[in-house]
# Entry
Amino acid sequence: MKLLLMIDHFGSGGAQTQLVMLACGLKGRGHDISVFTYHRAHDFHRSQLEDAEITLFDAEYGAGLLGRTKTLAALLKREAFDGVISYLKTPNLLNTLVGTLRRQKRVVVSERSSRFNDQNPTVERFRRELHRFADCVVTNSPDHATWLRQTFAHLKNKVTVILNGYVVPPLPLTPSIDSPKDLRLIAVGRITSLKQADLLIKALTIVNHRRGFIPATTWVGRRDPVGPDHMHAQALDALLADQPYIASRWTWAGERRDGAELIAEHHVLVHPALHEGFANVLCEALILGRPILAGTVCDHKLLTGAGSRGGLFDVRSPKELADQIERFMDLSTHDYTVLCKNARTFAIENLSIERLVTEYETLLVDL
# Structure
């Protein structure tokens, strides 16, 4: 098939990472793949697509929604794609509007974030009303799919779930925990108030009061240079500055291309976000055979396996997160290894790139 995939940019976010994985996977199956974006400021994944010899189309970001609409309409007219798959809000809007006007075959939109992140309920309802013009609505979150079906009658038979997919790397060595002081934690996510690094800092403070020491902790993710998220990052710096010992055990690693290697070097991935879609980084940790600690929101109960692959905590409770961290500090190497094996087994069975590509292929053929 000749397919067009659409997203805002090639940054390092979860939705962008998954669309790139899908594009490369479909290309590897012999499909003719192109990708349309409109924001060149974030090019984290561009070289990966260029290396796969995937055709890239860029609309001018400054042209606004009307300019992007015209560019996409001209592209669909010129290229005659067999289907168009879009990820995220604005690309979905462009896909449904232009696809309807052009009578495009196989219009597939995909919601990748949590409904709890909706900032304007009226606008978001309008966006989802437009989904009626799509042939299918894909979400990577079973929790979000249930909500869509229950909330929007016109989507009841249009929504399908396709979980994230990843290339399964060789299993890295499982680090031992010979002493509670050996435990190493890692968190991955852009530094925003939503990701709640402050909750993790507060939980580590509680652990320190109880134990007199804390695990070494690394936070990987982009720090915005301006705006509200930059101000939040500065507030986190101030919080750490007030606690020199916690700061000495905390590392801001920035945006990294060796994220998988960093996760593999740590024992547990901690994800204190207030809410998520189907969190990319949790899946990446499971693929690498690393247990996860995540909040009791969205699909995290599925991913943690009721404790068999990690643990859950209330995203408003530093104490509950501290309790989970101490649970891992006290694990024997044997018990920790069991959690690692459970994580890897679940990921291989449910989160492979081969399954992702096959499910999209089947979906497109059936439309």
Notes: The longest helix spans residues 333-350. The radius of gyration is 21 Å. The first strand starts at residue 2 and ends at 6.
